[in-house]
Amino acid sequence: MLLFGHRGYSDQYSENTMLAFSKAIESGFDGIETDVHKTKDGVLVLCHDEKINRTSDGKGYIKDMTYEELCAYNFGTKENPQRISLLKELLELCKGKNVKINLEIKTNKIQYPGIELESYQMIKEMGMLDQVLFSSFYVDSLYKLRAIDSSLYLGYLFEDDYEKNKQLCLTQKFHVHAREDFLDEDEIALFLKAGLDINTWGVKNRFRYDYFKEKGVNIVIANKNFKKLKM
Questions:
Q1: Which of 37, 48, 175, 177 is catalytic?
Q2: Engineering a disulfide at 24: which of 9, 41, 166, 228 sits with its beta carbon 3.0 to 4.6 angstroms away?
């Protein structure tokens, strides 16, 4: 089972910053999970929320600001300031390393025109398609990516309407990115039998991490480095 740093090593460093990403790699995470948005001038940046209010000292929607405007804000701490991260920067950091990226296309609230194709093209041009897992809460983004390249690794994120979304994964052959509390032994076995990977998130303690490892889950996405934490 692989362990991915949720928004980087976000238990210790400001989420989705280059510092959090580099520290995740240094501390032994197998991969990095992050979220891509698109600025007013078409730049692909990494941030969880559609607004920067929670994660920076600024306010407003990413879609309404240029990259240059976003760079005026601090996404780190007073002691360790960080600017908003670029998708390209993360790709450059990970290229050639034994680390994967789970790139969430953040389109469940705002559908950024062309974000799927532009993300794909950047990753392809850097020769990194084999290092990237694409995921989204917005299933139309997954369909768009599949139409672009049918060989892509696609995961469907969900935390509501479990039975409905479970069937969507089974019929459309999307890998399962379900919140961890939906997954018991029977559900895990069902998905694995169907040939689907289970990449779960929201894992908060070592007990659940070890449980998923025992049951054959493929990836746990977490804020903490459970490889180094004892029970």
A1: 48
A2: 9
48 is catalytic: yes
H/E stretch holding 107: none
Exposure class string for 64-96: b at 16+ Cβ within 10 A, else e: ebebeebeebbbbeeeeebbbbbbbebbebbee
Query: How confident is the model over 57-77, as pLDDT tens digits?
Result: 999 999 999 999 999 999 999
**Closest among 89, 92, 73 to 81, alpha carbons compared:** 73
What six digits make up the tokens of 61?
């929607």
Q: Cα dihedral angle (184, 185, 190, 194), rounded to 10 degrees?
A: 100
**β 175-178/44-46 pair status:** unpaired
CA 205 to chain centre: 19
Category of 104 on φ-ψ map: left (φ > 0), alpha (ψ -120 to 50) or beta:
beta
pTM score: 0.97
Name residue, tokens 């989420």.
15
CA-to-CA distance for 43 and 38, rounded, in angstroms?
5
Taken as a whole, the chain contains a residue count of 231
Q: What is the CA radius of gyration of the chain?
A: 17
6 in active site: yes
Q: Which two tokens stand for residue 151?
A: 């060989």
Residue 36 has which token pair?
A: 């891509």
**Amino acid at the residue 169:** C
